[in-house]
Amino acid sequence: KAIPDDKKIAAIAAKIMQLPGIAYEVVCIGPKRYNELYTEFGNLNRLLAWGHARVIAALHEKVPSCTRALSDQFANEWVLKTALGKRRVPVQLEQRTKAESDVAVAAASILARVRFVKWMQDTAAAAGCDMPLGCAAHVTKAARAFVDKHGQDRLCDVAKLHFKTTAKVLQ
After folding, report:
1. What share of the chain is helix, strand, coil (3-state, %, to 5)?
2. d(CA 56, CA 89)
3. Nearest partner of 38 among 159, 167, 170, 165, judged by Cα
4. Overall average pLDDT of the 86-97 stretch
5. Which of 28, 57, 108, 112 has its CA 20 to 30 A from that of 119?
6. 95 DSSP assignment
7. What is the pLDDT of residues 17-60, one digit of tens each?
8. Separation of alpha carbons 41 and 38, rounded Å
9. Phi, psi of 14, rounded to the nearest 5 degrees
């Protein structure tokens, strides 16, 4: 969050992935699947917990000797504990606000950001449209251009449908 330059983040991510003995996992949920999961879970925090639990479980498989996990606390702590419990991962989970102050959580955030930015760039190139990030007026304008070019039915492939920006685009 403290590094606004995506090129700098990509350079740091490359160094992280080359560290000897590093284990990492990135779960990429594109908008189409995200929208399905959001409908299924009915709650953003439960969806986030599902994704975090997938990552923790995958990392535990890679490094079973690791018995602890740290996560940013994005909801009541039982939400992630419940999701992790469903996967039966034997780790001691610690959750705290501002967990990115820990180097492992900061590294995870960097790897996730790089994957997200790459997905956005690839999707924009495939769609032949600009896809800026955020919720400003230029984002709404770009999303309307996408709808004009590809149709409203394809918006679910590139946008989170429950966001206010999507509602503005569809008005």
Report:
1. 65, 5, 30
2. 8
3. 159
4. 94
5. 57
6. E
7. 999 999 999 999 999 999 999 999 999 999 999 999 999 999 99
8. 5
9. -60, -40
Question: Cα–Cα distance between 139 and 167 in angstroms, integer?
Answer: 12
Q: Which amino acid is at 19?
A: L
Provide mean pLDDT across the span 136-159.
Answer: 92
Residues 6+ positions from 95 with CB-CB distance below 8 Å: 70, 71, 72, 73, 77, 80
Q: What stretch of H or E contains 72?
A: strand 68-72
Cα→Cα distances 155→20, 37, 129, 143, 146, Å: 41, 16, 12, 8, 8
Residue (of 44, 22, 20) closest to 110 by Cα position? 22
| pLDDT, mean over the chain | 93
Q: Can you read off the two tokens belonging to residue 21?
A: 């003995």
Handedness of CA 2, 130, 17, 26 (dihedral sign): positive
Answer yes or no: are the C-beta atoms of 100 and 1 closer than 8 Å: yes
**Residue 74 near residue 48 (C-beta atoms within 8 A):** yes
